[in-house]
Amino acid sequence: MNRQRRQAWLVGLLLLMLLIAAAWSVGGMFEQRAQARQAMADLHECQTLAAEIKALRKQPTVASNQAMGVQELGDHINASQKKAGLDSSIIDGVFPQSERRLGDTVYQVKPTALTLRQVALPKLAVFLYHLTEGTGLRLRDLQLRVP
């Protein structure tokens, strides 16, 4: 091969390599764009689900046809106390309060104040876990005081 022909082949080979690199880059950009679109769709779905979860948290978790009676509530408190390994003397008082409507819904909330004395935090956590476990009861406010 003469020199000019060899240079033409090298230029052609270089152009072919550049064309392959450009095609590979464009393909990568299209793939990245598709992944970015999927990520945006996933983000939108996550935001929608997060908003739905926030809305559901504001609603009651369990709607029963019959409210928990005072005796049933007392029994449940005693059972939770025993499961937590607490002495019966720690309960200072159970104070049911008047019913009130939950937001704009037809549901009623029956708050009850519970006073405990000299309870260690780990035992209190176990007691509250058992108290709210599977009953529809929720802990809304907690006040801790040092004696």
Uncertain ranges: none
Inertia-based shape = rod-shaped
Tally of domains: 2
Q: Helix share of residues?
A: 55-70%
Structural class: mainly alpha
Order of helices and strands: HHEEEEH
Distance between the termini: 101 Å
- How many β-strand stretches? 4
- Round the mean pLDDT to the nearest integer and report it: 85
Share in β-strands? 5-15%
Give the helix tally.
3
Largest sheet: 2 strands, antiparallel
Instruction: Kindly report the spatial arrangement of strands forming the biggest sheet.
Output: 1-4
Radius of gyration from CA coordinates: 33 Å
Question: Could you walk me through the main structural features you see in this protein, from its secondary elements to its overall organization?
Answer:
The protein is mainly alpha-helical. It folds into 2 domains: 1-58; 70-132, no CATH class. Helices cover 55% and strands 10% of the residues. The protein has helices spanning 3-57, 70-83, 121-132; strands at residues 91-96, 100-101, 108-109, 112-116. The strands form 2 sheets. Strands 1-4 form a two-stranded antiparallel sheet. Strands 2-3 form a two-stranded antiparallel ribbon. Helix 2 (70-83) crosses helix 3. The mean pLDDT is 85.
What's the topology here?
Elements: H1 3-57, H2 70-83, E1 91-96, E2 100-101, E3 108-109, E4 112-116, H3 121-132
Antiparallel strand pairs: 1-4, 2-3
